[in-house]
Amino acid sequence: MNSITLEQAKAGNTEMKGAYMRSLRFRHSNLDSVVQRVKNCMISSTGLSLTVVVGPTGVGKSTFARLQAEALLERYESEIREDPSVIPVVLSEIDAADQKEINWVLFYNRICEDLQSLFTDESMNQTSSSIDAVRSSRMRFERALRNRRVRHLLLDEAVHLVDSNSEPLHYGNLLKSLGNRGNMNLLLVGAYGSEQLVLSSDQLARRTAIVHFPRYQQTQEDFDNFTKFIKEFAAHIPLAQEVDLKPYVEKLFDAHVGLPGWAAETIIRAVLESSEQGNKWIEDALWHSFPSEAAHNKIAFETLEGERRIKSFLHPEGPMVYKPLTQVESELIAKGKKGSSNKPEGGNDSAHA
Description:
The chain is an alpha/beta fold. About 55% of the residues lie in helices and about 10% in strands. The chain has a 5-stranded parallel sheet. It starts with 5 loop residues before the first helix and ends in a 12-residue tail after the last helix. Mean pLDDT is about 85; it is low at about 120-130 and about 345-353.
């Protein structure tokens, strides 16, 4: 919820304007579509316990996660009023891997903090090894889930799990065990690459739903929806005079490859620069805030590459033609032969030595 009103932001300093604009959340066509698909996946009778929302950077995934958490909390208002110790919905962010290794103790500790169930230094020092520390922290984490009666666990920045050297089985077992908990949904949100989570085990592949959060494409319908988003965003710009962003929509669309969240960040920077120069809109501030050519090319490339890679992870729109089992078997045989040829000659397999 936004605690600063538009009028307060208009009268306030640049810092207040920035806090106000960054707290804004607008529903738009692509976001609403993702919300509905996730809602369908989280119906208990579907048997799906794990949903992963994947999309490009700057599309609005974190905004979706916050909106989803708020919407879910509304379902439990009466229960929370009756028992304030209940935290049925928790949203947490996964930290980036330190030197390509996930710090699992930190991971569990972060969520326990969000559940207001802190670890104690004494209990942390009772462990005799890193394996014991992970096991101990995981037990506290699961106990906190039970005590707070968590029904929905939302984890943002899920791509950090796969963008690491951690064995897929490690986080695969974590996700599988959480998914096995009764009356609980697990929702992960992350950049392209997060869809690789389903490959950590055959059980996860069967039980995981991948939902794509796409950018707006080069179609008239998508451009119109992007325009509607920008128009609504412009109505909440906290400068002394109203700002018309209509003349800039096409350039905003092209420069940000149809990514509404990224475009919003550019507008915010322009508003803050304008605020510092007299609290009125300055067109040059917008051009100064546009992405550099290098930044545009980098994000455009990663977005297009991500769109290409995720296709095979999505549910088909119609009848699907799958590989015949004979072809799958041939690929397995070829993979086995390739693995054998990579073993060192004249030595035992170290895994069985």
